[in-house]
């Protein structure tokens, strides 16, 4: 098999890929010893802190058999080819922002942060191409520096992730006319775990089944080298936040979700209300909202109060009231789009998020409201943290996207870990997940969930297509991480095998 197809070469023929041989030469004729020697330069020593992987929330951790930190396409290909020959498994990871064990493996871990940079920005095509390890912060900066400036159409709550990781889990923003961010991808350049580690460029016009699977590929459809994504003219957003009664929002959920281009809601159970944020594009001057005093109160004081609630659980509702006092007020912010849409996640946290058909979202929220109220009335009941986040996305046609085929309402909950300390969360978040599942929900792939292949097939009609694709491009199972083997292939692997506190 050839080392690279023409489209992939064109997409990647930019520094540091000016050497076409990085892409076009097959590795089949390279000896295994030469591969090992070549990879010494990007092999992470076992004593290095990078030899241990922990996700951002520090809830899952692994010590892989080997860890690599490549910086070039050739090194990525060499890693995949050597793993195929050695019968090893390879799993790529970005910055590790997934709150689940998606980034963990006992096999070979590939830290992709070094494979970063801008490959191309086209005002004519309204696209930009980035290497997969590029963080969204760097993406925003590169697009803002273009002349004239550009921006992504929609983003999620944070910009710390790499663009390759973002695509691999169908991460979403919010807006009933905006699909998950993966739907804006035009093409992907992948290293396939086949003999010679070929490089291919896939799109709707080139190997559509592989492209569609890779739009939410969980790291199993190929090692992503580059992402071409749709962009638009840079824009500001004017976001207006207002306070509402919980039932008022739930009873008018559809109307509220369509009341602006980007709508989000945060429910503070102990405060008894919701904050609804409506954001629309604008050309008025920026009016950012930032305050050192507000940061001290919102971050440091809140974290201390949450720590106190670890020891005195019935103090938790008072922390929730404090947070509601900070957040529950009218405000207006005008700033660059990504600055408005990004959200401070505050502290390490346990989190669960499910995607509901928007038609079922109100009933699901009512069931969650009733459950939280029952627990609050019980002296020994669960004491929940804040906020419950509510967002929306448009339907898409990505096989494993939680928004596949339906307008979606995303509902997420958090349980904070003040100062990184453990906090009981499983009872509440398990019940939350059960409520969402009972209303036809699909879990966010980057968050903890229990789905087995049978469950996945029941809620994703194109799941057999996805499995067929990974069998075609990876018959030896090189890219099958423990997460993929558990949730996609059905191996009996413990859900908590990588938990820092089993």
From TrEMBL:
PANTHER family: D-ARABINONO-1,4-LACTONE OXIDASE, L-GULONOLACTONE OXIDASE
Domain FAD-binding PCMH-type per the UniProt entry, residue ranges: 60-234
Enzyme class: oxidoreductase
An MF annotation (GO) of this entry: FAD binding
Taxonomic path: Eukaryota, Fungi, Dikarya, Basidiomycota, Agaricomycotina
SUPFAM superfamilies in UniProt: FAD-binding/transporter-associated domain-like
Protein's UniProt keywords contain Oxidoreductase: yes
Transmembrane segments: none
Protein name: D-arabinono-1,4-lactone oxidase
EC assignment: 1.1.3.37
A cellular-component GO term for this protein: membrane
Protein's pathway: Cofactor biosynthesis; D-erythroascorbate biosynthesis; dehydro-D-arabinono-1,4-lactone from D-arabinose: step 2/2
Organism: Cutaneotrichosporon cavernicola
UniProtKB keywords: Oxidoreductase
Domain of life per record: Eukaryota
